[in-house]
Amino acid sequence: MPSLFDPIQMGDISLANRIVMAPLTRNRAIEGQKPGPMTVTYYRQRASAGLIISEASQISPMAQGYLDTPGIYAKEQVAAWRQVTDAVHGEGGRIICQLWHVGRISHVSLLPDGAAPVSSTDQQSVAMTFTKDGFVPVSKPRALRDDELPKLVADYGHAAECAMEAGFDGVEIHAANTYLLEQFLRDSINDRVGAYGGSIENRARLVLEVVEEVTRLIGSGRTGIRLSPMTGFGNTAALDSNPQALYGYLVAQLAPFNLAYIHVIEGETGGARHPKDLTAFDYAALRNSFPGVWMVNNGYSAALAGEALSSKAADLIAFGRAFISNPDLVRRLRENAPLNETQFDKLYGGGAEGYIDYPSLK
User: Fold this and answer.
1) Rg of the Cα atoms in the chain
2) CA 207, 314, 51, 72: dihedral to nearest 10 degrees?
């Protein structure tokens, strides 16, 4: 049976092991929403992962939702990200870029000319976001018109091409954590009528159009997608009324694209794997309907990861918080070594402390 330390072919990308560094927002972009020199060091330190998924990176100026998060749409950002990808590749690693549009989880102070955030709906979320004034309630969004959606799809395609120009090995379409694409998927948020609202088929339409555009431009073997069927992500939204049917349909429609992988968050993002107040969800049914590489995420230990691989419930295991404080996590898992404690007050924003100063094993 495969172990965490065995190689795997993921679409067009060869990975040295099955340990993935999950995307982790750290709010340390510099002027121009670019990764800076510290970010180069941060990712270089963690290049022993079989795969690094970059922190979520906005696909356009209107896609930003938090202070000091990087973009992947302008030539200056491409040049800055090239420093990161070169560093990771220089250490023998692989890195892909997570493509992000936050939708209504944003604030007018973060958007061009104080524009309102955009979403599938004009209903305001109860979420908070991080601005120059600290944590504030998100702004009321406006609902995108159907005739604006082709431009949105094109923005995803442009960002994917920028990612490849920046030297990434591929991209991950962020369709999770109640951000824009999931705002279209869930009937608890999407209150539209017409081609992009109402039925499951209509609510999934935008996600599938984005996947079609990105795979057309950079290839399916370098494209993945992230889903979170059972997360409210900090109470930013209620679940869909029938998540099993919704995500079952979506994964079945994704299968013919021959994506490099699907990345599924099990349970509540950053929380319980099996929340007591939620009905059971059959992740195995999704996995069985997708013939490609299956990546899982949320609270995995080395032992739990080994069980998932040996039972074929997963092909790749993504670790999040453990990679924040353990740049050499692969070695620590292999040697069953203790992990550094995470400085939770240094997660978002700031300098080198709690970012690139965690020690590796001697």
Assistant:
1) 19
2) 10
Distance CA(97)–CA(36), nearest Å, equals 16
Give the span between the Cα atoms of 294 and 219, in whole angstroms: 18
Q: Which stretches of 224-281 are DSSP H helices?
A: 243-254
Residue 263 lies in a domain: yes
CA nearest to 328, candidates 283, 361, 286:
361
Q: What is the CATH number of the domain that holds 76?
A: 3.20.20.70
Q: From the centroid of its chain, how far is CA 326?
A: 20
Chain CA centroid to CA 236, Å: 16
Q: Is-contact 178 233, C-beta < 8 A?
A: yes
Contact residues for 354 (Cβ-Cβ < 8 A; gap 6+): 343, 345, 346, 347
Chain centroid offset of residue 182 CA: 12
**Residue 240 covered by a domain:** yes
For strands 261-265 and 128-131, give the pairing.
unpaired
Phi, psi of 90 (to 5 degrees): -65, -25
Q: What is the pLDDT of residue 271?
A: 77
The answer to whether 122 touches 197, Cβ cutoff 8 Å, is no
Which residues participate in catalysis according to the annotation?
A: 179
Q: Which amino acid is at 197?
A: G
Q: What separation in angstroms does the CA of 223 have from each of 49, 254, 340?
A: 18, 11, 32
pLDDT attached to residue 272: 74
Query: What value does the mean pLDDT take over residues 89-107?
Result: 98
Pairing state of beta strands 13-15 and 8-10? antiparallel
Give the pTM.
0.97
Could you tell me the residue range of the domain that residue 49 belongs to?
A: 8-346
Decide if 229 contacts 164 (C-beta within 8 A): no
Q: Does residue 148 lie within any of the structural domains?
A: yes
Nearest Cα residue to 348 out of 25, 23, 22, 21: 25
357, part of any domain: no
Q: Quote the number of domains for the chain.
A: 1
- CB count, 10 Å around CB of 140? 14
Does residue 201 surpass a pLDDT of 90? yes
SS3 of 71, please?
strand
Find the helix or strand (DSSP H, E) in which 222 lies.
none
